Amino acid sequence: MRAQVAIIGAGPSGLLLGQLLHLAGIDALILEQRSGDYVLGRIRAGLLEQGTIDLLDRAGVGARLHAQGLVHGGLELGFDGMRHRVDLHGATGKNVTIYGQTEITKDLMDARAAAGANTVYEAEDVSVHDFDGKQPVVRCRKDGIEHEIACDFIAGCDGFHGVCRQSAPQSALQTYERVYPFGWLGILSDTPPVSEELIYVNHARGFALCTMRSRTRSRYYLQCALDENIEAWPDARFWDELRLRLDEETAARLVTGPSIEKSIAPLRSFVAEPMRFGRLFLAGDAAHIVPPTGAKGLNLAASDIHYLSGGLIDYYATGKTAELDAYSEKCLRRIWQAERFSWWMTNLLHRFPENGPFGEKMQRAELEYLVGSPAARATLAENYVGLPF
Ligand code: APR
Ligand code: PHB
Questions:
Q1: Sign, Cα dihedral of 77, 300, 290, 325
Q2: Do 322 and 357 touch, CB atoms closer than 8 A?
Q3: Angle of helix 374-384 relative to helix 356-372, nearest 10 degrees?
Q4: Between 20 and 30 A from 13 (CA), which of 39, 68, 159, 356?
């Protein structure tokens, strides 16, 4: 088999890259270790920056997103039993849009199927070779048969646990990591969201977030211990705990119902540098992780794919490698900004028992500064709606 670009992983990064390359007439093969249904079954965040939407439009998959996405011009910060609005649109002229990652994945899968482009699902033992030379090779097994794919480039879009970053020469790879001492317990329910906009809550019992997928489907999160047992959280306990962390008015408005998904996710900041090793390029979660507090994970994957698709398209059009050569540096500049913002929001809103009373006073001072200062709110807003790419 041969392809111009072999893409490892059919998450949002791999599928979006595949679509942009397809539209440019570049032949890309996607290899995914899981089934399509499994990929679609993963529940992830769903908040899109305008830049991400523009890229999805360019990929020709914006129609459903524009019809069904919920446009938000603000968010709320809750603390001390009060809510304070941050006017994102007023501060930046930009909005964010709520549209689940599952829906984006589905739209990209449908577009790929309509284009007749090839995705190999349930590809086993994918391995990447010879990317330090001119003719990289990808090997895998499908239905018991070994395959070898010769290609010009490999795109490592295989997520945090993927094989591509692990296959890079470890002496050339530098990683930076912070693991936070808590997780998020998330619940999805077919109940109307408690509020039109997202509410991020700093509370003595721990962080809480009220978010949504649609006007009839809510998503709520609670800060929890890392070793929390999900069996110990029947729905009633979750709703009771959420009410305790919300201001009275919001708690009274909360509509509860049976959960349709419940899971615990750890919080991590992680960056691998560089993002290119010869003809192997890492993109999305394969190269970096942010804690979900700033909702940057998917948006960072989109900016990586913007730069990578641009570099590959330019290479096939002109034979020039300048954009590919600049890929890692351009991505990392934006990634570190998003890492900083996600780390800052995580620190602002969660309980860190090890930081003691001084840490709590610092959080309080920062929250009061945000409430009192348009400049502080503008800084939050500028980062939240997304720095340009
Ligand atoms: N071979 C083939 N496929 C693999 C391998 C492998 N060895 N390892 C992992 N994969 C697949 C996974 O099954 C998954 O479908 O790669 C895909 C990676 O997808 P994601 O983890 O969704 O990563 P990415 O596409 O970069 O999307 C980033 O996802 O985690 C969120 O916050 C993140 O929203 C952001 C987005
Ligand atoms: C979500 O909708 O799941 C979501 C939204 C905003 C966040 C994190 C998660 O900051």
A1: negative
A2: no
A3: 100
A4: 68
Cβ atoms of 75 and 86 closer than 8 Å: yes
Report how far residue 292's alpha carbon sits from residue 294's, in angstroms, rounded to the nearest whole number. 6
Residue type, 199: I
Residue from 76, 77, 102, 209 whose mutation best tests the ligand 2 pocket (most atoms within 8 A of CB): 209
Mutate to test the pocket of ligand 1, among 285, 307, 335 (most ligand atoms within 8 A of CB): 285
Domains detected in the chain: 5-70+98-177+268-345 (3.50.50.60), 180-267+352-385 (3.30.9.10)
Q: Residues with catalytic annotation? A: 72, 200, 292, 296, 384
Q: Tell me: cis bond preceding 274? Omega within 30 of 0 counts.
A: yes
Q: Which two tokens stand for residue 142?
A: 């499908």
